[in-house]
Amino acid sequence: MEKYVTPAFMKQAKWKKNQLERKEFAFDIFNLSKVCEKFHKIRLAVILPNDIFQNVVKLLNNSMKKQISWIAFLTLTAVLKVSAGDVSGTVTLKGTPPPEKDLPLDAKCGELHKSAAKTRFYVVNDKAQLADVIVAIKGAKGGGSGASATPVVVDQVGCEYVPYVFAIQAGQKIQVHNSDPFMHNVHFMPSDSSKEANKAQMPKSSDLEFGYNKAENFAKFKCDVHPWMFAYFSVFDHPYFAVTGKDGSYKIANVPPGKYTLEFYHRKAAPAASPITKEIEVKDSATTADIVLEVK
Predict the structure, then answer these.
(1) How far, in Å, CA of 143 to CA of 256, rounded?
(2) Is the pLDDT of residue 159 over 50?
(3) CB of 255 closer than 8 Å to CB of 137
(4) What is the pLDDT of residue 79?
(5) pLDDT at 238
(6) pLDDT in tens, 98-129
(7) Which of 68, 74, 178, 262 has an alpha carbon 20 to 30 Å from 130's alpha carbon atom?
(8) For range 170-174, the mean pLDDT
(9) What average pLDDT does the segment 236-264 reach?
(10) In sequence order, what are the residues at sequence separation of 6 or more whose Cβ sits closer than 8 angstroms to the Cβ of residue 88?
(11) Whole-number pLDDT of residue 284
(12) Cα distance between the two ends of the chain
């Protein structure tokens, strides 16, 4: 193998190493992908076979590779501290929402509930904190592909979809589970009717999987067997969004520094056509953005 590891090759590898140390890692951590690209160009320059190149990589482990790994780790740690921040807050509701109505459950579904199942138009606690509000950064870019994100799991429990409101990134998968002891019909209904799907799901059967690549607000699932069953979801072409929990809180992680407009969507208090907005500036520390929505 020594005939392949020529002095010229080692000299070129050393030059690449030095260049990476003083330039790539020192100034632009987001070009880390270029590190691998440049390193592999060493192989292309001398036309090494793959198996021999892998052995060369092992030979360089104690010099180039380890040193670059430490530099990458330390630089990444430092850059993340100053290049991204979390946006969090609480959404509260002003006014008294109308009473929720009983769902018209049939006998079998009714047996699964200890008390009357209600609509979920305004899910609010005793502190007026509002759940099911979708919060997103308007016009955000980047952040990676939704295809690699963990799927969102939607369950059918007591003839209701849980969660009732959720959000995904374009390309992210939705897995629908059936925890009820009878069949449901999962009707996927985005605005693009060509992507609509309608599938039966038996109890204890495999999860059904859906996906959607177009940004929109409040697309829905429904069950045609149990017509009161609905779930609503929004799709974004970036990962900078969240949905408030039962305590009205939300958190959007790792937002790059800059000035943004936050948009707040709620099916009743802030519909898709007229979200409530708030201007924010993200720096290297946590940003708090509370807001009040009014009953409509």
Answers:
(1) 9
(2) yes
(3) yes
(4) 43
(5) 96
(6) 999 999 999 999 999 999 999 999 999 999 99
(7) 178
(8) 97
(9) 97
(10) 249, 250, 251, 252, 286, 287, 288, 289
(11) 81
(12) 76
Token pair 């390193």: residue: 39
Show the 3-state SS of the chain.
CCCCCCHHHHHHHHHHHHHHHHHHHHHCHHHHHHHHHHHHHHHHHHCCCHHHHHHHHHHCHHHHHHHHHHHHHHHHHHHHHHHCEEEEEEEEEECCCCCCCECCCCHHHHCCCCCCCECCCCCECCCCEECCCEEEECCCCCCCCHHHCCCEEEEEECCEEECCEEEEECCCEEEEEECCCCCEEEEEECCCHHHCEEEEECCCCCCEEEECCCCEEEEEEECCCCCCCEEEEEEECCCCEEECCCCCEEEEEEECCEEEEEEEEECCCECCCCCEEEEEEECCCCEECCEEEECC
Q: How far apart are CA 244 and CA 290, in angstroms?
A: 11
Paired sense of beta strands 258-265 and 134-137, if any? antiparallel
Residue that is written with structure tokens 């790539």 in the block: 24
Q: Residue 248 and residue 264: Cα distance in Å, rounded? A: 12
Per residue in 42-85, pLDDT (tens digit) is 333 333 444 444 554 555 455 454 554 544 444 444 444 446 89
pLDDT at 290: 98
Residues in the chain: 296
CB 119 within 8 A of CB 101: yes
pTM of the predicted model over 0.85? no
Amino acid (one-letter) located at 288: T
